[in-house]
Amino acid sequence: MPLQPRPPRRAPAGAAGARGRDAPDPRRHRGPHLRRCRQPRPDQGGRGEPAGERCADSQARAGRDPAYLVTLGTPSRTPEARAMTTATHSTLFYDGPRQYADEVGGVLRDALLRGHRGLVMAPARRVDALRSALGRDADEVTFVEDTVAYAPQWNVYRVLLDFAAKAKGVRTCAIAEQTLSARTPAEVLDYQRLEAAINLVFADHDVDLLCPYDAGTLPSHLLDIGRHTHDALRTGGAMSQNAGYDEPMAMLAGLSAVVAAPRDSITVDCSSPADVSTARRMVRDLGADLRLDPDVVADMALAVTEVLTNALLHGGPPAMLHIYESGPTWVCHVQDSGRDALDPLVGLLPPAMPSDHGYGLWLARQLCSAVDVGTDDSGTHVRLHIRTTAA
């Protein structure tokens, strides 16, 4: 089923972005800009990292060069000569590896016969099953394991965009599945946002996206993500309308509820630009005390820098940073007094330039395990999560 057109965008606000201007169009994707290192500006006291290796390392991680896409599957067929149509976003509920290989393999074969490009982002065991099922046709498909494509989860958007850009003018058939059962509750919530937003931000891309869900092993609350975020179902090689599909903007709004910081949080007032560098050092010190991976903590510090800077530039004082643990995640929670309605799509795809609004949230999503954004009477809240336990 074709995805629905995107609604008019609303100006972002508070810690999530600037007020009074439209959010950047996610279609303006220029991957190389993500590899630039943002430098502090004189009027922005703690913005970014010092011009040094840590900033370069963190930016490189956030805007990682997609080496896994350098060598595409080699097509042996002529691309289908027809006008491109809007994207489709369907799901498949499979029970066991055999049904998976039959159904997904059939979708890929049909796409290859039409001259489309094939991309598979899936767990290693599923990649192996599809390679075996496709035989020689597997040479025409690009495979990316989920530990790369979904590291972190929002990186999957970039993988898909990079692939489509390298196959410009040819329709893409993409398979997207990760090991969802290994995700934390915060990551699962963020994945719901990711699946719902696909219906809007990819609506005018030349992509057929199939998201398989393992009905034989996943619990019902995870299967419900597939049921409510795809407007089409695939069964027995046929595609039908999904009666359980929920309107994406309504779902995204329902997933943006504000969660107050716990009373025992470590809280610091960051209402002046000079406070940002202090907050960054605090994040690093507390992360070291928890014996978290230094690179992951440094990435969190960079994400906090970006979001706090946005709060100071576009939100209302005071700007507060709350730091606490929540289950298996460590949370850095930025709060300002901005109460304007947020655009739930801001920062989901890379803006054209690092100076564009939405870049800070985009970068945070490339650095953190999960990002929650919401606004209520208490202001605008951005919660940045990293895992404290292994997957």
TrEMBL record:
Record field: transmembrane: none
Disordered, as annotated region: 1-62
Pfam families: HATPase_c_2 (PF13581), MEDS (PF14417)
Keywords associated with the record: Kinase, Serine/threonine-protein kinase, Transferase
GO MF, one example: protein serine/threonine kinase activity
Occurrences of domain MEDS (ranges): 88-230
Domain named Histidine kinase/HSP90-like ATPase: residues: 272-384
Composition-biased stretches (Basic residues): 27-39
Ranges of biased composition (kind: Basic and acidic residues): 40-56
KW Cell wall biogenesis/degradation (keyword) present: no
PANTHER family: ANTI-SIGMA-F FACTOR RSBW, ANTI-SIGMA-F FACTOR RSBW-RELATED
Name of the featured protein: Sensor histidine kinase
